[in-house]
Design goal:
About 5% of the residues lie in helices and about 40% in strands. It has about 350 residues and is mainly β. The protein has a single domain, classed as Distorted Sandwich (Beta-galactosidase, Chain A, domain 5). The strands form seven sheets. The chain has a nine-stranded antiparallel β-sheet with strand order 11-12-13-14-28-24-23-18-21, with no helix packed on it. The protein has a six-stranded antiparallel β-sheet with strand order 17-26-25-22-19-20, with no helix packed on it. The longest helix has 6 residues. The two termini are about 30 Å apart.
Length: about 350
């Protein structure tokens, strides 16, 4: 594993970049600022390497950016209605940083925090351990939450992400990674011709503020049916109320891969021109698919490349949005003495 200086935070703390490699030429670059995946260099069908993850070149761009490129998201990935929830008879108020709702951990979520990094490499491949302690009351959440995230790059071109957390007070936790993928290469056009398969027969419809209504709706007969490989752009502009509300896809699919907590295939993404394939497996019950609907032409990333509307796809493995306010959704409550644990694997190959 290589380590490089990436820069410093505004208060002068050093930020590092860790480059994980394997014997097949793949490289994953990760920084301890936000636990962010800065780049993923993977081969196409001819063996040519390209970076397939959106990101920035500097620490200041990550600090000031609003797109969450590549970051660890917490304490709660996705939205919580009105920034409010109750736990143990106590009402908690979080930041309303997405209209009137709470999004991705608040004003300064885990993506804006400096994590402690350690080389965790072993027989399964080069690995980076990142740890962070979120103090009781941080962004309004209860409990001191100790978080460990381990990124491992395997010899099978898999980036495995292992999340663990413990708390000293009842709290809620929903950790995910917010990488944006374009399998043709970051900054290289839109993702509308990418073929997507999602192993789910239901999704969670949203209201006008993108909060789930509580319904688990069948995907069959709707633009949300990706049970067989379908071009992302095939129906994204259909006259459908859900698509209009999100300006495209920005929804949670209810995974049906098997028993809760068991690693199972969630989604598969194919890019026809390069031949690159991304398979996403997870122990989580849901996956948020976001088609870069809020990217626009003045968003510039690595090397000054333009990251325009729908130029990337996020596949965020997670519990459902707003779960604390929906008793029928899988619980995101973590109690003292318990351990939060989830695994997601992003596996790259070609066809």
């Amino acid at each position: 594993m290589q380590k490089q200086a990436l820069g410093k935070t505004e208060d002068g703390q050093p930020v590092d970049l860790y480059i994980l490699t394997n014997d097949r030429g793949m490289a994953a670059s990760i920084t301890n600022y936000g636990g962010t995946v800065v780049s993923l260099r993977v081969p196409d069908r001819l063996g040519k390497l390209s970076d397939v993850a959106l990101g920035y070149d500097t620490v200041s761009e990550y600090a000031n950016g609003k797109a969450y490129f590549g970051a660890i998201i917490g304490r709660y990935g996705n939205r919580i209605a009105h920034g409010k929830f109750q736990l143990g008879g106590v009402s908690y108020k979080l930041a309303s940083n997405d209209g009137g709702n709470h999004l991705h951990g608040g004003n300064q979520g885990f993506n804006k925090r400096l994590w402690t990094a350690k080389d965790f490499s072993g027989v399964r491949g080069q690995a980076l351990e990142l740890t962070y302690v979120s103090k009781d009351g941080e962004e309004g959440y209860p409990g001191n939450l100790s978080v460990q995230v381990v990124y491992t790059l395997t010899s099978h071109n898999e980036l495995k992400i292992d999340y663990r957390a413990t708390t000293d007070k009842p709290t809620i936790v929903n950790l995910t990674n917010h990488s944006y993928f374009n399998l043709a290469g970051e900054g290289n056009g839109d993702i509308l011709e990418h073929q997507l398969m999602i192993h789910a027969d239901r999704f969670t419809p949203v209201d006008g503020t993108l909060i789930p209504t509580g319904e688990l709706r069948k995907v069959k007969g709707t633009p949300f049916d990706f049970s067989t490989p379908t071009a992302i752009g095939a129906r994204i502009n259909d006259d459908d109320e859900q698509l209009k509300r999100a300006k495209g896809y920005d929804h949670n699919w209810v995974l049906g891969g098997g028993e809760p907590g068991i690693l199972a295939l969630a989604a598969r993404l194919d890019e026809p021109r390069s031949g690159r394939v991304l398979e996403v497996s997870t122990t989580q019950p849901g996956i948020q698919v976001y088609t870069g609907n809020f990217l626009h032409a003045d968003v510039h990333g690595k090397g000054g490349k333009t990251y325009a509307f729908r130029s990337a796809l996020c596949l965020e493995t997670q519990h459902f949005p707003d779960s604390p306010n929906h008793p029928g959704f899988p619980s995101t409550v973590l109690e003292p003495g318990q351990q939060y644990h989830s695994i997601t694997v992003y596996k790259f190959s070609t066809k």
